[in-house]
Amino acid sequence: MRLFFTYLSSLKSIMVNTRIIxxxxxxxxxxxxxxxxxxxxxxxxxxxxxxxxxxxxxIRSELDEYSVQVTRNKSYRILVVIxxxxxxxxxxxxxxxxxxAIGLSLRGFNVTILxxxxxxxxRIFEKDGIVIEELPLELQNSDxxxxxxxxxxxAVKKRIVRDSESQIFAISxxxxxxxxxxxxxxxxxKLITYLVTDxxxxxxxxxxxxxxxxxxxxxxxRDFLILQNNILVADSNAIVAALSKILELPQLPxxxxxxxxxxxxxxxxxxxxxxxxxxxxxxxxxxWRKGTRTLLSAWQQLESEETFRHYKLVICGVSGDDFLSxxxxxxxxxxxxVVRLSxxxxxxxxxxMKRCKAVVIPSNFESFGIVGLEAMSAGKLIVSTREGGLxxxxxxxxxxxxxxxxxxxxxxxxxxxxxxxxTYEQQLAKFRISRMIEAFESLITS
Length: 446
Known about the structure:
By secondary structure, the protein is α/β, with parallel strands linked by helices. It folds into two domains: 45-263 and 433-445, 3-Layer(aba) Sandwich (Rossmann fold); 279-430, Rossmann fold. The protein contains 17 helices and 14 strands. It has helices spanning 2-17, 24-41, 45-63, 92-106, 147-162, 199-206, 212-225, 237-246, 252-255, 292-301, 323-334, 346-355, 370-378, 390-393, 406-416, 425-428, 433-445, and strands spanning 77-81, 110-116, 123-127, 130-135, 168-173, 189-195, 230-234, 256-258, 279-283, 312-316, 338-341, 358-361, 381-384, 399-400. The strands form three sheets. Strands 3-4-2-1-5-6-7-8 form an eight-stranded mixed beta sheet. A three-stranded parallel beta sheet has the order 9-10-11. Helix 10 links the parallel strand 9 (279-283) and strand 10 (312-316). The longest helix has 19 residues, at 45-63. It is globular.
């Protein structure tokens, strides 16, 4: 199965990089990708809808008295674009947007979620007051976007234009340019673009060279961010500063508003078999950005330490851009030093959080740091860098180390064995989900 994901990831990479718009090659790649994706996700339909229902109950319980319907908000039509929700993807950005959609719906807004169809058929569902529309990809790409982005962008724009008789707010992330318009926006449409972890930042942080593809994406993003009626919201000051520098947009701090992500309390635990009694936990895509290689290097060097022979490392997350780290993980799994999990549920995450010795966040860049909030909610020690938005999320009481410093990480892991857990209540209060919903409600209605 992991090889299948690697195959699919390779297809995606080719489509992201190609700019042979309208060519026979792009059409072939598009059809291969669709067939592979539909084959992978054909059984996910009922599963993801059940997940949405459970999350609605979770957010309703979390918001409690705040979730009272507000009649005046019914006049606002909100489209929330969450491409990979239907694929069963449980990444932080996907669930952040889902939580936002649920929260706005509970406040009386007319909310529709747009997600990619898993079998190429258009469908409409209704879940506790939220409409979910599955849109098939469109083989057209008039805005010079890389194919992987362009087909979905075309599907979203086709849906948006269809509702031209009413005022619409379309909420999406910058990553993927899902609501990209090359020219000025239609009069009936206002965009709310959430600036979260972005492909351009990831690429630029790994190399100082500007490839043709990177320069092209930078130009597209720059043009998109200066469109009128495009309301810019960021999950941290760090990503605003990074995008401002990389895209050469010095005005971005003045034209964007920071709304920190709000996160609900941990869900009831869902047991996972085969989990060791003593372990350290790392949650996130196996990738350069997440610092997986630094963590694995430190863990290998700790093998000879008597104390750490009693601990294992549990790594949870999908495969990303670090194939060498995946190979190293396989070796450590065979040596019974690492447990590798992939797309875990929220309940399974709670189970792991509650039982681990500490949560390790070795990231080279984070626009925010949801795992840090979850670790605090679980009352766990945090061993982490302070890169990007992590510095805004995490308290001063964490066991901090410098990004890419294996020696500092080793030192802090040793320290964690005998450290006590600090209190996090004051820090967690800053990131209640009600605060995020209130901020977006004010943004839309003002």
